[in-house]
């Protein structure tokens, strides 16, 4: 843990140094441009080369993941300058480590011959992930520059929809025949000269390439050489079909502590294998996407993107938020007379709305997780709804009574305290109800239940929370 912390500190230090060099280069360029000297261009060129050489040396000695960290931490203009100084041999490895929005912005800077060269250097599945966001006509031209085997492999990966196991699987299949001996299996693997890094078990197939089981490398090595592979293989392996969801695969990897698993087609023929690092990268990216979606941001949001590009992506959800806030204000406005007669209502009503929103967000988070893990469907939704309403009733009674007591102490009015307690109880029930139904309805309509969930929950809990509290206050107190 200590070494990891120290490494992160070193990375932050490297990022600061790169920023300083870029800013110093820009400053020197501006100063030289202001001077009227016949040697101005020569001086400017020498200074620029000096800074570029220092930057180039610093960037190209970094690990690809560390270089990606530095690039993501730079504003867009500086990022492009730094990217042009990175050796072309490192482009592919660094691009794979970058977040999706940053990668997309840098890939567009590469011309078709450069991208085709990356396709010849990288694994087919990695290259497919790199070019899948490019225009289709450009992808076709790039693929035409690859040899037939690479082109076929990349196209087969691109044919699988995003989020499927097929889109993430490795094509470099390692398989052995069940009727071979362990000694023959070892000889077969030696002929390959190298094995994939994450591979801990090989697929065992029949002569038609149909999956029969898996054999771990340790059993292969330590077993008696004349033993058949079929006799010692695991005949009930965890495997995935190409069209399985990666979310389901991630759950299986966690449940069974998998490092790798075979991938088969509909005929159960082995066509690839899935590695834990690909699953973890997907889960990390999906988690980041969900954290942005909850507040109405898209996954391609780049922290250092141009102002116009970033701003217009937020218009829809800001407009929706403004609309819900306007509705809430009209609800409050309808009770201006009540508020003017009893000023305590203005001080207390934000508490009611806040507690309802909090309850709704807690419930929605639980429902979204249940949907993501495929643990929630139409059969158990009613049970979950009853459970959450019961929790809302219990917590509403508890904290409503507590807030009612505080209201009584502050304002000395028993009717006002009763209104506060009742409003707290009702709005927490409302929050639980909306927290279950809102993401569930989005999911069954084919929408992402995470997208803008916090904004969609705010509307009913605020507006109806104000309506409940002020309505009760008007009926009871005035």
Report on this structure.
This protein has 478 residues and is mostly helical. It folds into 3 domains: 2-163, Alpha Horseshoe (MgtE N-terminal fold); 175-284, CBS-domain (Roll), CATH 3.10.580; 314-477, Orthogonal Bundle (Tetracycline Repressor, domain 2), CATH 1.10.357.20. The protein has helices at 2-34, 40-60, 64-72, 76-84, 88-97, 100-107, 112-121, 124-131, 136-144, 148-158, 165-168, 182-192, 217-222, 229-232, 246-256, 276-293, 307-312, 315-333, 336-341, 344-372, 378-411, 414-444, 453-477; strands spanning 175-177, 201-205, 211-216, 240-241, 260-264, 270-275. A 3-stranded mixed β-sheet has the order 1-2-3. β2 (201-205) and β3 (211-216) form a beta hairpin. It starts with a helix and ends with a helix. The mean pLDDT is 82.
**How many helices?**
23
Instruction: Output the helix-strand order.
Output: HHHHHHHHHHHEHEEHHEHEEHHHHHHHH
Strand order of the largest sheet: 1-2-3
Domain module tally = 3
CATH superfamily of the largest domain: SLC41 divalent cation transporters, integral membrane domain
- Strand % is 5-15%
Q: Terminal Cα separation, in Å? A: 63 Å
CATH class of the largest domain: Mainly Alpha
Gross geometry: flat
State the CATH topology of the largest domain. Answer: Tetracycline Repressor, domain 2
Low-pLDDT segments: none
Helicity range: 55-70%
Summarize the structure.
With 478 residues, the chain is mainly α.
């Amino acid at each position: 843990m200590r070494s990891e912390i120290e490494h992160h500190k070193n990375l932050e230090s490297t990022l600061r140094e790169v920023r300083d060099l870029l800013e110093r280069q820009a400053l020197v360029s501006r100063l030289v441009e202001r001077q009227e000297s016949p040697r101005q261009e020569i001086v400017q060129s020498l200074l620029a080369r000096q800074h570029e050489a220092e930057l180039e040396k610093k960037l190209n000695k970094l690990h690809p993941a560390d270089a990606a960290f530095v690039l993501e931490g730079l504003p867009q203009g500086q990022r492009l300058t730094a990217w042009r100084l990175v050796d072309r041999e490192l482009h592919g490895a660094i691009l794979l480590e970058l977040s999706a929005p940053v990668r997309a912005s840098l890939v567009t800077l590469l011309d078709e011959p450069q991208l085709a060269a990356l396709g010849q250097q990288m694994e087919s599945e990695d290259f497919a992930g790199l070019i899948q966001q490019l225009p289709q006509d450009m992808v076709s031209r790039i693929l035409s520059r690859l040899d037939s085997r690479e082109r076929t492999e990349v196209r087969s990966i691109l044919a699988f929809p995003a989020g499927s196991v097929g889109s993430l699987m490795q094509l470099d299949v390692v398989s052995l025949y069940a009727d071979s001996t362990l000694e023959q299996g070892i000889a077969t693997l030696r002929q390959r000269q190298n094995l994939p890094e994450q591979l801990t078990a090989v697929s065992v197939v029949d002569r038609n390439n149909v999956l029969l089981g898996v054999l771990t490398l340790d059993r292969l090595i330590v077993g008696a050489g004349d033993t058949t592979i079929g006799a010692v293989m695991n005949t009930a392996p965890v495997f995935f079909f190409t069209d399985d969801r990666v979310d389901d695969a991630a759950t299986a990897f966690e449940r069974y502590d998998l490092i790798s698993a075979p991938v088969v087609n509909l005929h159960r023929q082995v066509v690839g294998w899935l590695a834990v690092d690909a699953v973890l990268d997907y889960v990390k990216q999906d988690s980041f996407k969900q954290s942005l979606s909850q507040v109405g941001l898209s996954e391609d949001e780049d922290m250092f993107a141009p102002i116009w590009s970033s701003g217009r992506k937020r218009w829809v959800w800001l407009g929706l938020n403004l609309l819900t806030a306007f509705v809430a204000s009209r609800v409050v406005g309808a009770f201006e007379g009540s508020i003017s007669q009893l000023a305590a209502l203005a001080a207390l009503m934000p508490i009611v709305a806040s507690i309802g929103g909090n309850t709704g967000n807690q419930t929605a988070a639980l429902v979204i997780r249940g949907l993501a893990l495929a643990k929630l469907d139409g059969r158990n939704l009613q049970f979950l709804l009853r459970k959450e309403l019961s929790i809302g009733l219990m917590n509403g009674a508890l904290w409503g009574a507590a807030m009612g007591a505080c209201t009584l102490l502050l304002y000395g009015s028993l009717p006002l305290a009763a209104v506060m307690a009742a409003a707290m109880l009702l709005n927490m029930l409302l929050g639980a109800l909306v927290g279950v139904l809102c993401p569930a309805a989005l999911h069954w309509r084919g929408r992402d239940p995470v997208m803008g969930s916090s904004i969609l929950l705010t509307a009913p809990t605020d507006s109806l929370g104000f309506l409940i509290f002020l309505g009760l206050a008007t009926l009871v107190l005035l």
